[in-house]
């Protein structure tokens, strides 16, 4: 009898051991995928932290804009190197490419009006100026962003020599001093870093007057170098035009980051425009050197120049920190690309920034106020 009980006890112990092992095995099967799913990698942490921090700074910039509207002067507070590095770690180029593809997805006819109406309400778009007011006409968001205006919506000023190339907000303007340009009041960037090394005189067709980079752009004694920065908000007209009569002789494309160029961010990050992807068009007008630069931004990786079919922005084949040049001067074309004042020049996919840097006599005067809204065709300045 005792032998039977002992045998039964040992068999029960074996069963319990087997059952316990099975439970452990099942628990491992259930918990392993959960642990794998919640395993955080350094890249994910950086992206999440960077995105959250960038969002916070953008909200902070919005608050600063509201205080500015009330006339409250705010001290300049620049980002530290680690803050800029953290922001640049966010894959804005990849996100912008994804946004571009999403914009090209054709919307069902029934969905177009609600989607576009929400955008119009959010950003204050004036559809009465659009060449086609019917929202059902635009097959996707990309077509809606690039909508054309009625011919009479933007009369081009004939009196003044330089007009606004786009709709937007004037961030800064004035003379270039000490080889630096102001992106917003109190925050500057290097002229040479922004435009890149000097282009050959064969392309620009003039002889520099001095040794510094700023003087190398000035062709005539007594002239000065001027600049003007125009910020295009998401609700603005997204095409840009020629600001004067000039000849484009050279294009330089800088692949780069696609950080926000919102005025709040421009006030926070020094040399923001030098970090971001941009297309620099250079040439000459009746007073000498003239350049127009289209600066990319978050969700604005695509910059299109109508006469330049070889230009491809926000492309994976181009790495940050480089630049590529293209000359419009050739044996068959000694004049470059002639542009008339007000002529269509290019477009953004959403909204961004236009920077004009040009040479003019000392009596050139801007007809602007910092922070004012301006529309394409209105006067920037004249002699």
Number of strands: 17
- Structural class by sheet pairing and helices: alpha+beta
- Average residue pLDDT: 81
Largest sheet: 9 strands, antiparallel
The CA-CA distance between the termini, in Å, is 120 Å
Task: Name the poorly predicted regions.
Answer: 1-15, 24-38
Q: Work out the oligomeric state of the chains in this entry.
A: single chain
Query: How much helical structure, as a percent, in the residues?
Result: 25-40%
What fraction strand? 15-25%
Gross geometry: globular
Count of helix runs: 11
Explain the overall architecture:
By secondary structure, this protein is of the alpha+beta class. The chain contains eleven helices and 17 strands. The strands form four sheets. Strands 2, 5, 7, 8, 9, 11, 12, 14 and 16 form a nine-stranded antiparallel sheet that branches. Strands 1-17-15 form a three-stranded antiparallel sheet, with no helix packed on it. The protein has a three-stranded antiparallel sheet with strand order 6-13-10, with no helix packed on it. β3 and β4 form a beta hairpin. The radius of gyration is 28 Å and the shape is globular.
Task: Quickly describe the structure.
This protein is α+β, with helices and mostly antiparallel strands and 383 residues long. Helix content is 33%, strand content 23%. Strands 2, 5, 7, 8, 9, 11, 12, 14 and 16 form a nine-stranded antiparallel sheet that branches. Strands 1-17-15 form a three-stranded antiparallel sheet, with no helix packed on it.
